[in-house]
Amino acid sequence: MRYLPKSDAERRAMLDAIGAKGVEDLFRSIPEGFRLQAPLRVPGPLAEAEIIDYFRQRASENSIGYASFLGAGVYRHWRSVVADSLLQRGEFLTAYTPYQAEISQGTLQWIFEFQTMACQLTGQEVANASMYDGSTALAEAALMAERITGRHRLVAARSLHPEYRQVLETYAQHAGLAIETCPYAASGRVNADALRAAVDHRTAAVVLQSPNFFGAIEQIPAAAEIAHAAGALLIVAVAEAASLGLLRPPAEADIVAMEGQSYGLPPSYGGPFVGVLATRQKFVRQMPGRLAGQTTDAAGRRGFCLTLATREQHIRREKATSNICTNQALCALAMTMHLTLLGRQGVRELAEQNLAKARYARLQLEKIPGVEPVFSAPTFNEFAIRLPRSVRMVNRDLLADKIVGPLPLGRFYPELTKCGLVCVTELTAREEIDRLAAALARILAIAGNGEPAAAARGATAREG
Amino acid sequence: MSDENIRKARTHVSQSEALIFERSSPGKRGSDLAPLDVPPADPRRDLGPDLVRDDVEGFPEVSEIEVIRHFTRLSTWNYAIDCGMYPLGSCTMKYNPRVNEYVARLEGLATEHPYQPLELSQGCLRILRDLEKALLAITGMDAVTIEPAAGAQGELTGLLLIHAYLQDTQGQPRKKVLIPDSAHGTNPASAALTGYEVQNIRSDASGQIDFDELRRLATEDVAALMLTNPNTLGVFEERMAEIAALLHERGALLYMDGANMNALAGVARPGDLGVDVMHLNLHKTFSTPHGGGGPGAGPVAVKQKLEPYLPVPVLAEDSEGGFRLEVVRPKSVGRVKAFGGNFGVLVRALAYILAYGPGIRQATEDAVLNANYIRKGLEGIYELPYASPSMHEVVFSDARQKKNEVSTIDIAKRLIDYGFHPYTTAFPLIVHGAMMIEPTESESKEECDLFIDALRSIAGEAATNPALVKSAPHTTRVGRLDEVAAARKPVLRWKA
């Protein structure tokens, strides 16, 4: 086997050195009845070429060749080959957690740079070395707020990503943390009156997402005022990090939980991504996860090491701030590299291109008879539209045009069955937007004329 | 350094490199976006001035070649599996095959969106199905979720399942989780997150769980025992099946921490040993890269009785061979992570399994062979606190070297000068001055011999020149860092 660096003669020599008759001697502590007699029933062994064939075959069963307008927390953005080639250096890829600082300065320094950029983007004072993703970062932020305030209730906007909300519920249920949901207003933003009414002296934190699940950009300072007036914290989730290239950072928030996937990570059918957790300096000892800090050696040379580890599970065990151990380091490195390549000008340009493309798409789609905006608040690269028909049905027809249409909002919000969430990034070509608009106009016109949609679909559906 | 005993490593030039922010100068850029093909936006007009920032202050401005040099130089300051043996006990630092990186990046896999229609996702779902089947074959369990993002999240998920199962079948989740004193810190931390009280249970003289103590502690308050097998001493818990039977008799469940599955894959199956719930660390046993701390994946495998409680979504197969994701499962513990599992990590793990097939047993045998070979080579030189047979790792202690005030951490740091990454120090907690060594199957006889020679040589130094060991490492860019100062006045980010 090509991964195993031993000949049978070497194995024999090693067994002789140990004084073992055969390799089975080494497993004698496993009671005999439990030792497997038959080979495992798993496919393989495969040569490298066969492995590639297997995965190419699987890839061909997916969506290659389709234009997609899906976002909702997972975004298709430009990724530089520079970052991806650097990322594959074995010294980054195959290193462990940097506990041995003297031979991990590469990892420790980039973590320090990552923490810095996370603060610069979010307007916060301190950030950790990463969480699993945006959703678990948010759940940990909520537990942190409970520890800080000693209060046990959250008020969470209904426009928070529904899957983030579910993860939050999973983590909150055994922490004695109750979650109250706050409705959205006609603007698509959180309903400020309802929020004010829901927050009181028992509230640990207000949880908002911005831009929220509908794409609407929230008014963070106003929400912070409501939370702080009751002595509660404000937690802001950011599911589209690219928005922070031009949006005012949530500096008034006490904790920011961000998904960093947009900067340098592919959609990859849902992961691995990178959770960013940033907060105020004064809360640092309540933070979960690893932190890299600057220090010196005996000769006075600058160096970096993991620090404040007394918060963590390997030291504090059941009294730790979290159970997290493995994080998303390599993904955080991808984000660091990508942000470095984009730089001060690039993050802004990337965000402006998203804004411009989404604005163009919105204008094209809202021209179509029967297509209407759902909400009025300003948006970044995602917006909701209302169709005269079920979005699911329309999407089925769009597949025939090799288009993956808007996310049906009815999947998460029963009152929004005819609404869809459209996402457009800098990678969405104008031609694709025009193609979506044309196809949508055609599909809605056919349906509007009373023809059954299925018949209209019939001719081309098989190609899709 | 001209030490003739050091055969594996020599010092070499190490380039200096400032923080990226210190290398920045206004007006430089490392990338260009394709020109915009629609009318440009005016953020202040489109969004209103209140919602727009001026700038991301302090962000770096550097060119492409500077980015390349910055990260390349940083990379050379790291030790890595690709450089040599990384014998961290319980971390299973094995070779990370490059083809796994290649396939995870394929168009049609890396490019896929978790919300795209199922009919355009069958390839992704088939990969997940094939991985699930392989993991079930290896563990001997009945059902599996691939959603947890890492081992610790797998533990949390497993305990949520136990909680839900007991609540449902016994009307209450019970109060306590038993955890051996040799366990990883994540075990008690995960139990606490699930609302369980942690009751420690001690190990006996053989390094295994004290069965009499277990009999005494396994009361009707106990929901489960979390057991790592082989345990963190590298010792197989020989009474595992009896332990399972005792727990089941008392209405409790057996959770297995699969961190050390590299000792069992292809040789024995936890499912056969009575385990009810277990997690696997795909970034350990199944070779997905550690990447400086992650990402990982922590699938949780269960017996049939726990299947109804698995987190959503659950992968299901229809009669025509198509796959779908079930999200409506009334008894489910909910969702532990958005957008399903760490798919890219799962792809790599399946590629690893496919490369070996049933031959994964050979990898396990080689891992155990290496650990025992190293044990033999160091016996008599370092103190072996438990004489029980070793599986994939061996734990020595610094008891002999301590007489010269040389501790496990000193020996570990001196190993760096010899060209090796240190072993795990000071863990498990039940061994004072522990030296926990896990070579994995990825090391040749030659690399094992060099490692044995290095540790024998260091033992000699500890006897004749302890100061040399205590001040190690001597060859690195920086010496031992002042961790106390780092924690007392934390500097956690760069500022202009």
Topology overview:
The complex is a heterodimer of chains A (464) and B (496).
Chain A: H1 8-18, H2 48-60, E1 67-68, H3 81-87, H4 90-93, H5 105-122, E2 126-127, H6 134-149, E3 153-157, H7 162-172, E4 178-182, H8 192-198, E5 203-209, H9 220-229, E6 233-238, E7 255-259, E8 275-279, E9 292-296, E10 302-306, H10 313-316, H11 329-366, E11 372-373, E12 382-386, H12 391-399, E13 403-404, E14 407-408, E15 419-423, H13 430-448, H14 453-461
Helix pairs in contact in A: 3-11, 5-11, 6-7, 11-13, 12-14
Chain B: H1 43-47, H2 64-75, H3 98-104, H4 122-139, E1 143-145, H5 151-170, E2 176-180, H6 186-193, E3 197-201, H7 211-217, E4 222-228, H8 240-249, E5 253-258, E6 277-280, E7 300-302, E8 314-317, E9 323-326, H9 343-356, H10 360-378, E10 394-397, H11 408-417, E11 424-425, E12 434-437, H12 445-464, H13 466-470, H14 483-488
